[in-house]
Amino acid sequence: MALVRERRQLNLRLPLPELSERRHRFPPSISAAFNSTSSSSSSVTTNSSSSAISASDLERVRVLGHGNGGTVYEVRHKRTSTTYALKVVHGDADPTVRRQLFREMEILRRTDSPHVVRCHDIFEKPSGDIAFLMEYMDSGTLETLLRSHGTFSEPKIAHVARQVLNGLNYLHSHKIIHRDIKPTNLLVNRKMEVKIADFGVSKIMCRTLDACNSYVGTCAYMSPERFDPDTYGGNYNGFASDIWSLGLTLMELYMGHFPLLPPGQRPDWATLMCTICFGEPPSFPEGVSEDFRSFLECCMQKDAGKRWSAAQLLTHPFLKSDS
Ligand code: ATP
Ligand code: MG
What tens digit of pLDDT does each residue of 234-245 get? Predict the structure, then answer.
């Protein structure tokens, strides 16, 4: 579903990982997950406290899912029986894909928040494939929860919103824009902790007001100014774009389907362009409380300048219903 497309030149200033930081080798089981004949792999240490994990201690349990760039496996640490998620991304020769991978590695090495899925280690193969050893979120994604348990009540949505906003507040204060907030990138565990995952199309801003000129991410959840940057002068505030995507995601949890289209309609690019950029601001579902309506309005202003920041939204009265 993800549309990952570079439209303008990427302003990429991220260093490659230091060679001296790479050390582990993959056992055959993990190498098999890489779908490659070579078994030689190396590890790039993250800022996580669990960086001493050796790849040879891991065994593959099952496939958790497939995404745009690769496959996610459940793996088990043989000695401690701890379960992790291993996301294997094919870093093929395409320079755009490799740039995105190195950007994801750089962001994951920097982030350390209870509201962002923890990355314990990063393994790299000579073929260019890269595997991210991540905290395992045992209840899947918000999308799987929506499908298995049905729509969310307002207090549950407030609970989700508070946690994602804490994560966004952390990222934005570190000048990181996620750019792909959507139900499948928000992972849940059985404690109902919700964490932000998947930094494949994220960007570190070099200055606070740096322009965000690339066109990447999943277009269904993109803000109007991100979908059609030319109409908005080419430069826009990517932090506000993440807030739009969060508003849309929360609406989806309430309504049970993608909110900007009738249930069952597949979102194609042209329909989305008309709806998001030229349509009226989204109309909110019947029966929502005043607080929830006001909260969604703060997230989904078509004018990005009027949208609230993550820090402001954390003070919104709607979140009081999250006990
Ligand atoms: P996209 O490529 O558009 O981001 P996606 O989010 O579904 O799509 P991935 O991020 O590769 O793709 O993840 C694939 C699936 O793997 C997810 O939908 C989720 O079910 C599962 N998954 C990913 N990370 C974890 C994790 N840390 N713990 C548990 N399951 C995970
Ligand atoms: Mg994803």
Answer: 667 789 999 999
254 contact partners, CB below 8 Å, separation of at least 6: 151, 152, 154, 157, 285, 288, 292
Alpha helices in the chain (DSSP H): 28-33, 95-110, 142-149, 154-173, 224-227, 238-255, 269-272, 290-299, 310-313
User: Which ligand gives the minimal distance to the CA of 74?
Assistant: 1
Q: What is the pLDDT of residues 50-109, one digit of tens each?
A: 446 777 789 999 999 987 668 999 999 999 999 999 988 876 657 777 777 777 778 887
What is the residue whose two structure tokens read 């307002």? 154
Domain 142-321 belongs to what architecture? Orthogonal Bundle (1.10)
Q: Measure Cα distances from 319 to 151, 207, 293, 312 in Å.
A: 18, 31, 12, 11
User: pLDDT of 204-248, one tens digit each?
Assistant: 544 333 333 333 446 888 888 887 777 766 667 789 999 999 999
Tell me the pTM. Answer: 0.80
Q: What are the pocket residues of ligand 1 if the criterion is a CB atom closer than 6 Å to any ligand atom? A: 1-2, 64-70, 72, 85, 87, 117, 134-137, 140-141, 184-185, 187, 197-198, 218
Report the residue among 97, 132, 184 best suited for mutation to probe ligand 1: largest number of ligand atoms under 8 A from its CB. 184
Question: In sequence order, what DSSP letters do the residues of 114-151 get, joined into one string?
Answer: TTB--EEEEEE-TTS-EEEEEE--TT-BHHHHHHHH-S
Tell me the CATH number of domain 19-135, given options 3.20.20.140, 3.20.20.70, 3.30.200.20, 3.40.309.10: 3.30.200.20
Is 180 noted as a catalytic residue in this protein?
A: yes
Nearest CA to ligand 1 atom 15: 65
In this structure, the number of other CB atoms found within 10 A of the CB of residue 194 comes to 23
Distance, CA of 215 to CA of 205 (rounded, Å): 15
**Domain assignments of the chain as residue spans, ordered by start:** 19-135, 142-321
